[in-house]
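Incident log, entry 3
Record: Transporter (623 residues)
Problem: checksum mismatch between cached and fresh output.
Input:
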Amino acid sequence: MVYLHKLTVVKIHNKKKYLSFLKFKRDFQEYGLEKARSYELILHWLNNRLSRNQFLVVSGILVGLTAGMAGVILKTLVHNIHYFITHKVHFEYQILFYIVFPFLGIVLTTITVQTLFKGQDRKGIGAILYEIAQNSSIVSSVKMYSQIIQSAITVGLGGSAGLESPIAVTGAAIGSNYAQTYRLSYKERTLLLAAGASAGIASAFNAPIAGIMFAFEILLTGVVFTDFIPLVVAAVCGSLLSRILLQEDVLFRFYTREAFNYRNVPYYLILGIFTGLYARYFVLVSQKVEHLIHQLKMSPLRRAMFGGAVLSLLCVLFPPLFGEGYDTIKSFTNGDTLLIIENSLFRYFEVKSLTVIVFLILVLVLKAFATPFTIFSGGNGGNFAPSLFAGGTAGFLFAVICEQLGFKDVPVTNLVLVGMAGAMSGILYAPLTAIFLIAESSFGYDLFIPLMIVSVISYLMAKRFSPISPELKSLADQGKIFTNKHDKNLLFSLNTQDYIDYESQTINENASITELFDMIKNGNKNAFAVVDQANKLKGTLDLDDIRPYLFSNETDTLSLTKIMKAPPAVIFPDSKAPDILQIFDDTGLWNLPVVDHQNQFIGFISKSSILIGYRQLLKLYSE
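Fresh output:
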């Protein structure tokens, strides 16, 4: 009897499992996922069974590991190429390599973009912000690998740029496409996009806190996420993966530094001003070079050849400009300065302190040219590594000058480290990211005070010169991305055409007043457009304009052209919501006509409808 009972229980249990499987199968057939891979089926099943927060944590882990692996692959690939060029080849042949490879890197990247990726070369952090603001955080799946290929060619062959921005874009694409696959909402898609970028940065620097700060400080400015745990989990996973898989010499690590001494605060105050001024110089030169390159009447390939030739010349004269430059910064902190000069043409001069100072000044001056020529002529990379390289060089130059002036116990290594944070804060407008990045990379949490001093001074100086990050300024000027205000973030994501009243009432300019009164009587609109035979806007009317004539005895002699008025402004379907609200504020009106660029009337748009759309989106973010 007991045996039969157990058998019945087993059958009932198996039947429940079978019914659960049938429901599971029906769910996937409903989503059209019959051909989905096994792991996708499992994740879809988890998405249906787990709570929202639980599934987001699982998603953060998977996105973080994937983005971290992408960062590990890219860093390892570029490191091996650099090592071969700079360590396995004799100096005389290195000069030939410095002539050929940087040129080849930019040209090959341009050819790759034009042939494999159909000219889609949007890159840098601005590309991520553009997708968040203008494309509902939907990033093309191509970017999950295109940025790795392009930046590996550019930086691996000597482009004077960084890998961190491409890694961030790759991670963002991974997070966005993951969210698209599992049909997550816009808010969750944005969160996982930021998680992927955060994991990429954490993997590149083995600095999870810096990765999180990067996401909140740059990508999600003004956006408050209550469930930020997936972001933290992704950054930790990306950092842990790089720590496990990357070799020690590939990691962005600094093991030598001095203990913080409050007597050295004056050094840090002066260095903060120095890095702030240099950051402004770097930004101005970058903008000038970008403008120059864009003004060239050349094909993309010829532009790449021009930029590659300039970069190759700079790398021959000053090898530290080759690639990311992290090895040079490590040499500064390890006291191997002479090795850097011995690999350059300055080795033919007698190496003295003055020689070192002149060499470092020229490297700093020309770095501001090498990076924009790399990026804007057709290469792929970012300003993370260049800003860190320039800041470390500036800190070392400042330390050498102080020693030559007779100052004792100059904290050389600390000045190099905090100099990196200072330049990064002023160039990227990311002081918190810079502070935690250097603190984590140097195990220098006792350096928080000098890091904060230098970073804040440099950042405030940068903000004084320009309130918007220069890397984003060109896109912001075109209205393609938002600035640092949360309301503009949301307003830019509104689609103007969704708020046009396409059923607005129109009346011909030759119609009688009686026809107008009949339209008012039978309609429910407060604003009317007066148009000609071709539906072109001639003027507008509202009830306040018409009310004085409702009981007038002069209606027989009135015409619409006498009582209509020219609108103080018109709206175009492609106008942005912030611009429309500004027009409403300037005119003091609540309804304005929308026309195309041939003045064909389309409908009316109201200020109320845009504000309601904004509030709905704000509610979506706060949920």
